C-alpha cells in the first residue's frame, strides 16, 4: 500500500463536515434517556411502548448497517450520505412532534433506517478521501471521537433544550445539520461509486432477520433472563445467519463479501473491537447508573462528569495514529488495552463514595476505546479493496453495535443477579414496593420516600459490589484481548512505512488496491 497523497484543505474541510452527522448520531443515542420522563407525561406510553421507543432506533441501525454500506458502494457514498441526512432530518421532525406513542415508535424506526445510511457512508468517504495511511488513521480517530462526544453531550444538550422548550426540541438539531451537509457535500466531498449490480433482496431480508433477532434476544435476556422466548428468538437469528452466510458464498455479487475474513488483520481487528466494545458498553451502562443512583447526580450533571472520559478518548483517538506512525498499530492497541486495565481495577475497587475514582477509572477505559476504535477501524477499512470499503466500514460498525449490546446485556445481567442475590429487603414494605426494592437500585431509589436512609445506602452498596464484580470480569476479557492483539497484530508495520501492509483482500470485481 502506498503512502498516498497528502490531504489538503478540501479533504480536512470534508472531514469537518462529516463530523456533524457523526456527532448527531451519537447525541441521538443518549439524549432520549433524559427526555423519556417528559415524553411519558405527554404521550402516556405503556411499559412495552416505552421499551420500543428506546430500542427501535438501535434495532434498525444494527440491522441495516451492512446493507446500507453495500448500497453506498453501488449508488455512490456521497449520494447515500445526502439521501440519508435528508431522511434523518425528516424523521427527526416526525419524532419531535409525535402526537402518540405509536407514532413515536414508527418515527424512531425510520430514524434508525436513516441513521444506518449515515454511519457507513461517513466512514467509507473518509477512507477514500484520505489516501495517505497516517492521515486516514488520524481522520478515522477524529470520526470515532465525534461519535463519542455526541454521546457525552446528549444528556447535557437534551437537558438544556427540554428545560427551555419541550422534550422534542433536541431532535430538531438534525434539521440545520442536514442543511449544512447538503450545502457542503457537493463542494467538499468526492463521489465514489465502484460497484454495479442490484442488491440481493433475499440477502437483505436474511441479514435483517438475523440482526434484529440476535439483538432482541440479547436485550430480552438482559431484562428477563435466558427464558424460552430468548432462546427461541436467538435460534431464529442463528439460523438466519447460517443461511445468510451460505448464500453469500454462492453469489457472484454478495451483499457481504465473506472473503474479507480471509485477512488475518481484518478478522483479528474485528475481534478486538468486539471484545473491547463488550467491556466498554457494559461498564458505561453501569457507570452512568452509578453517577445518577449512587452518587445522586442529576442526568445533566452526570453528563458533565463524563467530560474527562470524552477528552481521554479524543486524546487516544487522535494520538494513536501519530504513535502508530513509529510503532506497529497492533503493539499500540495491545499496550493501550493493557493500560486500560488500570481503569477496570479502579472500578473493581470503588465504593459508594468513590465518585472521583469511578470517573478516573472510566477515563482510562475510554482512553483504550479511543485507541482501539481509531486503529482497529483503520485496519478493518484498510484491509478491504476500495470497492468494498462501504461494506467493511459497515461491518466494523455492526460489530461495535453488537459489542455494546452484548456488554450491556452480559454485565448488566451479571450486576442485576448479584444485586438480587445479595439485597436484604427491609420489613414493612408492601408487596409491590418490596419487589421493586429487591429487583434493582432504580426500583429502590424510586422508594426513597418510603424507606430509611440506611435501606437506600444498603441498596447502593449492593449495586456497587455488582459494579466491582462486573468490572473485574470485563478486565479479564480485556486482558485476553490485549494479549490476542499483540500476538495477532504485532506483525503490522508502522503507518506510512514503505512496507506497511494490512493484508488487503483480493478484489472480487477486478479492482486492485
Kindly describe this structure:
There is one protein chain. This protein is mostly helical and 513 residues long. It has 17 helices and no strands. 77% of the residues lie in helices and 0% in strands. Mean pLDDT is 82; it is low at 506-513. The longest helix has 37 residues, at 453-489. The protein is globular, with a radius of gyration of 22 Å.
Per-chain topology:
Elements: H1 9-43, H2 47-75, H3 77-96, H4 101-129, H5 133-164, H6 174-188, H7 201-224, H8 228-250, H9 264-294, H10 299-305, H11 307-323, H12 329-348, H13 355-383, H14 389-422, H15 431-439, H16 441-445, H17 453-489
Helix pairs in contact: 1-2, 1-4, 1-5, 1-6, 2-3, 2-4, 2-7, 2-14, 3-4, 3-6, 4-5, 4-14, 5-10, 5-11, 5-13, 7-8, 7-14, 9-13, 9-14, 9-17, 11-13, 12-13, 12-17, 13-14, 14-17
Which range best describes the helical content: under 10%, 10-25%, 25-40%, 40-55%, 55-70% or over 70%?
A: over 70%
- Helix/strand class: mainly alpha
Biggest beta sheet summary: none
Beta-strand residue percentage: under 5%
Low-confidence stretches: 506-513
DSSP helical segment count: 17
Count the beta strands.
0
What is the chain-wise order of helices and strands?
HHHHHHHHHHHHHHHHH
Give me a quick take on this structure.
By secondary structure, the chain is mainly α.
List keywords for this structure.
single chain, 513 residues, mainly alpha, 77% helix, disordered C terminus
Amino acid at each position: 500500500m502506498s503512502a498516498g497523497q497528502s490531504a489538503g484543505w478540501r479533504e480536512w474541510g470534508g472531514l469537518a463536515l462529516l463530523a456533524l452527522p457523526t456527532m448527531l448520531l451519537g447525541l441521538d443515542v443518549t439524549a432520549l434517556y433524559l427526555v423519556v420522563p417528559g415524553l411519558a407525561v405527554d404521550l402516556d406510553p405503556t411499559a412495552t411502548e416505552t421499551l420500543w421507543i428506546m430500542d427501535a432506533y438501535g434495532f434498525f441501525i444494527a440491522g441495516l448497517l451492512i446493507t446500507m454500506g453495500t448500497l453506498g458502494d453501488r449508488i455512490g457514498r456521497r449520494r447515500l450520505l445526502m439521501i440519508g441526512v435528508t431522511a434523518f432530518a425528516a424523521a427527526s421532525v416526525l419524532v419531535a412532534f409525535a402526537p402518540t406513542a405509536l407514532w413515536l415508535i414508527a418515527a424512531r424506526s425510520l430514524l434508525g433506517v436513516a441513521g444506518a445510511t449515515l454511519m457507513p457512508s461517513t466512514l467509507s468517504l473518509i477512507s477514500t478521501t484520505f489516501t495517505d495511511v497516517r492521515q486516514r488513521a488520524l481522520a478515522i480517530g477524529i470520526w470515532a471521537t465525534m461519535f463519542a462526544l455526541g454521546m457525552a453531550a446528549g444528556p447535557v444538550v437534551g437537558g438544556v433544550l427540554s428545560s427551555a422548550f419541550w422534550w422534542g426540541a433536541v431532535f430538531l438539531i438534525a434539521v440545520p445539520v442536514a442543511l449544512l451537509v447538503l450545502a457542503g457535500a457537493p463542494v467538499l466531498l468526492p463521489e465514489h461509486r465502484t460497484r454495479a449490480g442490484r442488491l440481493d433482496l433475499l440477502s437483505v431480508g436474511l441479514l435483517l432477520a438475523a440482526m434484529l433477532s440476535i439483538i432482541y434476544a440479547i436485550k430480552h435476556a438482559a431484562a428477563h433472563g435466558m427464558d424460552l422466548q430468548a432462546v427461541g428468538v436467538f435460534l431464529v437469528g442463528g439460523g438466519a445467519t447460517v443461511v445468510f452466510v451460505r448464500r453469500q458464498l454462492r453469489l457472484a455479487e454478495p451483499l457481504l463479501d465473506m472473503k474479507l475474513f480471509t485477512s488475518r488483520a481484518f478478522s483479528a481487528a474485528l475481534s478486538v473491537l468486539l471484545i473491547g466494545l463488550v467491556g466498554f458498553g457494559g461498564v458505561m451502562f453501569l457507570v452512568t447508573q452509578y453517577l445518577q443512583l449512587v452518587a445522586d447526580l442529576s442526568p445533566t450533571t452526570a453528563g458533565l462528569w463524563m467530560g474527562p472520559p470524552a477528552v481521554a478518548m479524543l486524546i487516544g483517538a487522535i494520538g494513536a495514529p501519530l504513535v502508530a506512525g513509529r510503532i506497529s498499530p497492533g503493539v499500540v492497541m495491545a499496550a493501550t488495552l493493557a493500560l486500560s486495565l488500570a481503569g477496570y481495577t479502579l472500578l473493581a475497587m470503588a465504593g459508594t463514595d468513590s465518585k472521583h475514582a469511578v470517573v478516573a477509572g472510566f477515563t482510562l477505559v475510554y482512553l483504550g476505546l479511543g485507541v482501539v476504535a481509531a486503529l482497529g477501524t483503520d485496519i478493518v477499512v484498510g484491509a478491504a479493496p476500495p470497492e468494498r470499503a462501504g461494506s467493511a466500514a459497515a461491518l466494523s460498525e455492526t460489530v461495535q453495535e453488537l459489542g455494546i449490546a452484548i456488554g450491556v446485556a452480559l454485565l448488566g445481567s451479571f450486576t442485576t443477579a448479584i444485586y438480587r442475590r445479595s439485597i436484604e429487603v427491609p420489613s414493612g414494605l408492601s408487596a409491590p414496593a418490596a419487589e421493586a426494592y429487591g429487583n434493582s437500585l432504580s426500583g429502590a431509589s424510586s422508594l426513597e420516600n418510603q424507606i430509611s436512609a440506611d435501606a437506600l445506602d444498603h441498596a447502593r452498596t449492593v449495586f456497587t459490589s455488582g459494579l466491582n464484580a462486573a468490572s473485574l470480569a470485563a478486565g479479564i476479557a480485556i486482558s485476553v484481548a490485549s494479549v490476542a492483539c499483540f500476538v495477532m497484530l504485532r506483525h503490522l508495520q508502522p503507518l506510512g512505512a514503505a512496507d506497511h501492509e494490512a493484508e488487503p483482500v483480493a478484489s472480487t470485481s477486478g479492482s486492485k488496491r
